[in-house]
Amino acid sequence: MQKSTSVIRFFEKHRWLLQDRRFKKEATLRLRIAKRTLAASRAKAAHSRARIARQRAELHHRRLVAELRGSPAKAICHVFGSYCNEALRVARCESGYSVNAQNGQYLGLFQMGTTERRIFGHGADALRQSQAAYRYFVRSGRDWSPWSCKPWY
Question: How far apart are the two ends of the chain, measured CA to CA in Å?
Fold first, then answer.
């Protein structure tokens, strides 16, 4: 990237080389190659940064799951924050805190249906299921209307 950037800067400062008949063909070719190489290098760097970010996010998720493992209640409270107690009551009623609970198309801690899982996500662990349920909860106006179990039951 540094070499390509230097070549481009050189031709920006020496524009006359791109217009002088003696150097135009070679200068244009070198500039075009430098721009193409720089674009490819930037794309590769962006791809690498994205891959590293995904790896870091996955590592963070694994650490968090390990920390919250064995306690769906901890995962629920971690995700729902100030709505923790309400969410715990809904999850207990819906699934008995079981990430493997199933009732027809409804799965997991919060018994989300097929369409809701497609829209808001789902996962095998309590953290991902809680995150998906929280997204659904927020989208629905934070009123527990999508669930048949309500926190005040």
Answer: 62
Q: What is the pLDDT of residues 87-118, one digit of tens each?
A: 999 999 999 999 999 999 999 999 999 999 99
Residue type at 136? Y
CB 132: neighbour CB atoms within 10 A? 22
Structure tokens at 5: 């950037």
Other Cβ atoms less than 10 A from the Cβ of 109: the count is 28
| Tokens 């209307």, located at residue | 145
Q: Measured between alpha carbons, how far is 144 from 110 in angstroms, rounded to an integer? A: 11
d(CA 59, CA 83): 26
Question: For the CA atoms of 124, 126, 129, 135, what is the dihedral angle to 10 degrees?
Answer: -150
Angle at 76 between CA 73 and CA 81, to 5 degrees: 120
Task: Give pTM, 2 decimals.
Answer: 0.62
59 token code pair: 């590592």
